[in-house]
Amino acid sequence: MIVLLYVFIGIIVSIIIIMFIAPQKYAVNRSVVINKPVSEVFDYLKYIKNQDDWSPWKKKDPNMKQSFVGVDGEVGFIAKWEGNKDVGMGEQEILSVKENQLIQSKLRFFKPWKSESDAYLRVVELEKNQTNVTWGFSGKNPMPFNVFMVFFNMEKTVGKDFEEGLVSLKNILEK
């Protein structure tokens, strides 16, 4: 009985230690070069509904329910979704649009767990007909939920999805 008590206390102490050393912040981004002018790329990216054509998450549940509030491409527009276990339930709201530079949005996930992330799409003109697109997001994992990050590699898992999405985006815009 005493051994079980020591094992239990050891597990609890280990979890507490992990909570204090596990990362509480995350950030993931990927980039691609698209052979189109920055204005053309930006005009496509600022419309969240266009993400249905290139986002890897739409492919994971083509039957997800979607609804929209506001004017797409403008601050305040909200895209809501509810899908299978791979995409969950959440919404994306446009917070800022800096013409030919940056679209910032807030991602709010409600299922399978609640979280918020800051997302962005940044475009930079490399040459007259060449644009670098960076897609990324960041957020915080409050204690004790940050323990999960010890066992889940956000950079690898979400990064792979970003890479897949950016390849699709490049293919669409360069056609």
From TrEMBL:
Organism, per UniProt? Mariniflexile aquimaris
Please give the superkingdom of this protein's source: Bacteria
Keyword entries, A-Z: Membrane, Transmembrane, Transmembrane helix
Tell me what this protein is called.
SRPBCC family protein
Q: Which residues cross the membrane?
A: 6-22
UniProt xrefs under SUPFAM superfamilies: Bet v1-like (SSF55961)
